[in-house]
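Example protein
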Amino acid sequence: MTDVALVHETEVRPESAPLADCSPEEQLEQRYVAALNALVDDAAERQSFETLVDVLAWTLARVMVGFGTTAVTGDVLRRLGKYVCELTERNNAQAEAEKAKKEGLRPH
């Protein structure tokens, strides 16, 4: 996933029109992010994250088997780990900045 999708992951919605200056790949990525964000929002509203996670895991398994190589599984897991680390770092930096702001300090 590109940095654009990571930055806008909570802002893109299914009703959003694709940007004219985006490549076809970026437009497709925005479409998928919007669809999945809608599912995450729905799961939060219904308190059904366990069901959503199960469905997402099943879908990823279908993708991995569909491509027929163990390299795909490794790639999916590598990307998942990368995104978890990036999101964790971003959340930690935001928490640190908020803490510094409350203490009257300026973030680095």
About this structure: Residues 1-14 have pLDDT under 50 and may be disordered. The helical segments are 3-8, 24-46, 49-67, 70-102. The two ends are 27 Å apart (CA to CA).
